[in-house]
């Protein structure tokens, strides 16, 4: 039997999942982040501890490994793969002052024209004294995979999107050359492509098979989408976490930077989507998790709420309404907290439906089925309200773990 290992480096910690060739989970490990001062050391320790957490018996059966990282978390390494400075994490905005320069050469509304894009971060890194020692730019997932297979300068087209890589033509665009970046940008492969076998040192250290392959990885949010089971055009995943994130599989590529909409390539399809600032964080401001559970149960979903809110913590949203000054709308506030919650949940359901309408309006395939992930997925009455607005089946994702999605990616080539 051949097993597959998916490793997720996410925002709150690292996880690993081992699956068999029927995608059954055999083993799971976690390594949460705690008081991190040095991310490079932390990532390395997490990787080793996850591998050590897998029983020796399973390790000997693993045929392929893939790793996902957080999108646009990048680092510079020397010619030997040693990081020359601290990584810049996914949410680091220090590159924002280079957007103006970038906007002169990148096409209008390009994904690199964002404060957290990998390319904006790279321009910021170019002014570091340590930049002269840098040879490679790598994403978090690229570098972690390098620790396993020993090959430098390789990435995948999910991680490379925000570096400016053209995922349609599968090449770096000409305009990028105008930046004269004096280090090597990664060679980009399709996610899941086998890169090479585990290095002999790793095989010896952990007792893996010497023919175990390390595959090109992906980002944490795409991995979570892969975990849901959505596969066909029109199928979508809504994430009801702190914010509201929509992802819709489509045969056409949809991009509109005004709304923060862009598409990732997923084989022959496109994964398009957008994120709204509304979501669970607003619910959390007014209710405890216990109140959310009990009050939600009290809601009579057969009666529509008359309340029309735009729930936000502070002013501004981008998708499905692009207005940095959009005010939170949380009035009028009914006396009973149950009715207030009803209004909030139904308003968010309307925003979700409006988001999918916008994606379809811009050319994405018609919505057929919605999987749900995140803390709100278990709210049965909310699901019923969403079903009413979305007018398609709405279900809870069976699995939402990025590590599971990445294990499926590792299986894709060998298991197929
Ligand atoms: P994230 O990873 O984005 O922080 P999670 O997926 O862990 O978020 O979900 C947490 C969110 O889910 C919280 O903001 C909370 O308000 C919301 N939540 C928790 N329980 C419920 C519930 N029963 N109904 C609706 N929302 C809920």
UniProtKB/TrEMBL annotation:
Which stretches are transmembrane?
none
What cofactor(s) does the depicted protein rely on?
A: a divalent metal cation
Family named by the database record: Belongs to the FGGY kinase family.
Name recorded for this polypeptide:
D-ribulose kinase
Q: What organism is recorded for this protein?
A: Anabaena sphaerica FACHB-251
For this protein, the Enzyme Commission number is: 2.7.1.47
Q: Which GO terms describe its cellular component?
A: cytosol
The record places domain Carbohydrate kinase FGGY N-terminal at 3-226
Superkingdom = Bacteria
Quickly give the catalysed reaction.
D-ribulose + ATP = D-ribulose 5-phosphate + ADP + H(+)
One Pfam family assigned to this protein is FGGY_N
Query: Keywords assigned by UniProt?
Result: ATP-binding, Kinase, Nucleotide-binding, Transferase
